[in-house]
Amino acid sequence: MTQILPFPTDRHAEVHLLLPWYVTGQLDAVENALVAEHLAECGACRADLVQERHLADAVARDTGETGDSWAAMAARLDATSSVSVATAATAAPRRRTRDPLRAARRAVMRPRTLRWVVAAQFVAMLALGAQTLTQRSDGQPGAYHVLGDAGATRSGNVLAMFRPEASEAAFRRALQASGARLVDGPTASGAYVLAVPGGAGGAALARLRRDADVTMAEPIEQAPAK
After folding, report:
1. Which domains does the chain have, with CATH numbers?
2. Is 37 in contact with 207 (CB distance < 8 Å)?
3. How far is CA 92 from CA 8, 79, 99, in A?
4. Is residue 93 reached through a cis peptide bond, with omega within 30 degrees of 0 on the bond before it?
5. pLDDT for 105-125, tens place per residue?
6. Which residues form the Putative zinc-finger domain (predicted)?
7. Inter-residue contact 155 to 183 (CB < 8 Å)
8. Contacts of 162 (CB under 8 A, 6+ apart)
9. Which residues make Cβ contacts (< 8 Å) with residue 103, sequence separation at least 6?
10. Considering only CA atoms, which of 18, 48, 50, 47 is closest in space to residue 35?
């Protein structure tokens, strides 16, 4: 009888590749939970997550220069994704219900295109933030700032995530115990921007990290005021 041995997976490498889509809320529920669970125990990936947030600030400063290049890049990515999906469907017809999406994702993960894709996604997030701010000024409830919003970046200094099953009472208790204040969120990926006394080296951040309902609490590098 033939024994089938499973191939080991590199969870760290897999999460590292999924971080750009995690930041922009593009993952499905299973992948989102996988990344969140890994972030709770991997400091290196949490540091990478903070860098992805920093990329949002850089894109926000250069938004005016991305219009024409975005249209050209979008057309090129659409063509690349179409070719990858067609190839995956031909090579493995028995898995065509899942393979096309994975093939398309692998296509844009090449080093030459990955950063451009992430930058484009942050431009889209900023556009969504502008739209929600406009809706708020018109009196429509339920709008909130994205992390790329300049006001949230200036007043918040910590990026935090909580256990999905944490109650509102637990959320408030964690903030009160550390003296933190909610500045923005939640985003599509479930992150919150907090104003934490003392910043990166303060006792408040250390206490927030020790809270059982907090899965991640990382300082945000502040851009100089203009």
Report:
1. 11-137 (no CATH), 150-219 (3.30.70)
2. no
3. 22, 20, 8
4. no
5. 555 455 445 555 555 554 455
6. 14-46
7. yes
8. 170, 171, 174, 190, 192, 213, 214, 215
9. 84, 85, 87, 88
10. 18
